[in-house]
Description:
The protein is α+β, with helices and mostly antiparallel strands. It has one domain: Alpha-Beta Complex (Peptide Deformylase). It contains five helices and eight strands. It has helices spanning 10-24, 53-69, 164-176, 194-201, 208-214, and strands spanning 74-76, 86-91, 106-118, 123-129, 136-143, 145-151, 157-163, 186-193. It has a five-stranded antiparallel beta sheet, with helices on both faces. Strand 4 and strand 5 form a beta hairpin. Helix 1 (10-24) packs parallel to helix 2. The longest helix is centred in the first third of the chain and has 17 residues, at 53-69. The chain is globular. The mean pLDDT is 95.
Amino acid sequence: xxxxxxxxxxxxxxxxxxxxxxxxxxxxxxxxxxxxxxxxxxxxxxxxxxxxxxxxxxxxxxxxxxxxxxxxxxxxxxxxxxxxxxxxxxxxxxxxxxxxxxxxxxxxxxxxxxxxxxxxxxxxxxxxxxxxxxxxxxxxxxxxxxxxxxxxxxxxxxxxxxxxxxxxxxxxxxxxxxxxxxxxxxxxxxxxxxxxxxxxxxxxxxxxxxxxxxxxxx
Length: 218
């Protein structure tokens, strides 16, 4: 449990409260920082209870609201300018049961101090985007199966096998907390605007056509 042998960082707690106050005046939305902001490239501090329970609760609620409204399926603390190892994730099943991306129900989670390790050697390459690299997507190879570990908002530890799209989301958000953006290891020739993705490549979830036409390997 958080708080047993930890000390609240009152300065940080005040900064977060001010951030939340500003968000409240902006329809409850936090500004999402964009690529080029130094905080996105910093290793986050492990969360050990630096915030009061009430401030953490409000932060999580505001992050979730911001993520949903963006819209997105994950939001890391670095993306709102906060260098703590904390993120929120949530995604739901689409109508298309034959989606090769293996989208599955991924209920709302708060993932604190998350880590993952690959299970097996299988990977999958799909178009991926980021709220902090707005307006673009690119093909990124990810592990298909992972063992995910994290603490929840109550300090309880969790360990779970994730597969397919939920595994991709977890990897994406966890990478954020070590200063990595998905574009760092993406197929750079696949980079496309949202408009061009919709016009050219959205009918081909496995980006074989894009690979052939744009000149990259899957």
